[in-house]
Amino acid sequence: MTDDATTHEAPAIFNSKTRPQSADDEISNFGKVNYLEVTRHQHDQRLDNFLLNRLKGLPKPHIYKMIRSDEIRVNNKRCKAHDRVQREDVVRIAPVVLATREKPIISTEFAKSLLARVVYEDDGLLVLNKPSGIAVHGGSGLDFGVIEAMREVTGKKYLELIHRIDKDTSGLLMISKKRSALKTLQQYLVDKTIQKHYLCIAKGQPALNEQRIDAPLLRYTLDSGERRVKVEAQDVQSKESQTDIIVHERFMIAGQPVSLIEAKPLTGRTHQIRVHLAHIGHAILGDSKYNVHDKSGVHRLCLHAWRLDIPGYKTITAPLPDEMVDWLPEQTKLPE
Question: Where is the RNA-binding S4 domain positioned along the sequence (predicted)?
Answer without folding.
Answer: 45-102
